[in-house]
Amino acid sequence: MNSRLIIVGIAAALTVGLSGCGQSASNESAATTSSQSAQATVAAATPRLLSANNFRDLAGPDGGYTTSDGRRVREGVLYRSNALITNDADAATLDALGLKAVYDLRTEAEIAKGPDRVPAGANYTNVNIIGVTPSASVASSVDLSTPEGAGALLTGMNRQFVTDAAMRVQFGKLLTEIAATDGPQLFHCTAGKDRAGWTSAMLLKIAGVDDATVMSNYLLTNEYSKDSIAATAAQVTAAKGEQAGAAMKVIAGVSPEFLQAGLDEISTNFGTFDNYLTSGLGLSTDTISTLKTKLTV
Question: How many Cβ atoms are within 10 Å of 3's Cβ, its own excluded?
């Protein structure tokens, strides 16, 4: 099967399964209590949002990740999130951050199902990473029926972030726009874990954060979104059985092998991370330097 069709199918499944924002609407009341209790277990430099539960500061939960050269990732510069389908309280919280730009990494079809509530004062840009509009026929052609199949698909997605030339162009465009824009910025996809997760990993590596910390940041999705992941998997289990529910739990979360597959693909195809940035994404040395300066202190 064409690997790009696989990725489009995953995006479609996430849009349907996660209702566009990673928060099951039928479980929102119960999630209020769960979200409050999660604050005791997840230290957060930025507020927790009920209606965008994977929203967080790229700098990390504990005051800024340390870089290899002894600097730290600057807080309040870049935020990552799931879709901004926010309630009034969360919208007000985002408005108060003074965001200058929001980058929506979703497809047109995903956006149509749940447009962003763009924070006040922020310029909205759609950077469609996948580049193909999902359809029911494509989604139905993808095997998401087992946990093993679901995991293999997400592993393949992260590889495609590196090997697919069109996707590399979009990631290069995104990073260039971030470098050229002053003030706090936010990027997101549907669940805030795959397209946004890869973007976060690249930015943290540019900042000089070690791979173990990059992976730790990537895996925080499983903690921030644990209530909605569990609720969505339970809904699928009730409707389609335990195996389908287990597969959806894989699709809705992240695992180390997903991100690692992409990182390994960088080594295989480009040799070094720097070569991936310049030859793969088309970033200039000035853009890379600007990003590192913007991200660290």
Answer: 14
Q: In this predicted model, what pLDDT tens digit does every residue of 157-192 receive, in sequence order?
A: 999 999 999 999 999 999 999 999 999 999 999 999
What is the model's pLDDT at position 14? Answer: 58
Q: What is the pTM of this model?
A: 0.87
Taking only the tens place, the pLDDT of each residue in 72-127 is 999 999 999 999 999 999 999 999 999 999 999 999 999 999 999 999 999 999 99
Phi, psi (rounded to 5 degrees) for 249: -60, -40
Q: Is the pLDDT of residue 203 over 80?
A: yes
The DSSP line for the chain is --HHHHHHHHHHHHHHHTTTTTS-GGGHHHHHHHHHHHTTTS--SS---SSSTT-EETT-TTS-PBPTTS-BBPTTSEEEES-----HHHHHHHHTTT--EEEE-S-HHHHHHS---PPTTPEEEE--SS-S---HHHHHTS--SSHHHHHHHHHHHHHHHHH-HHHHHHHHHHHHHHHH--S-EEEE-SSSSSHHHHHHHHHHHHHT--HHHHHHHHHTHHHHTHHHHHHHHHHHHHHH-HHHHHHHHHHHS--HHHHHHHHHHHHHHHSSHHHIIIIIS---HHHHHHHHHHHB-
Contacts of 152 by beta carbon, 8 Å cutoff, 6+ apart: none
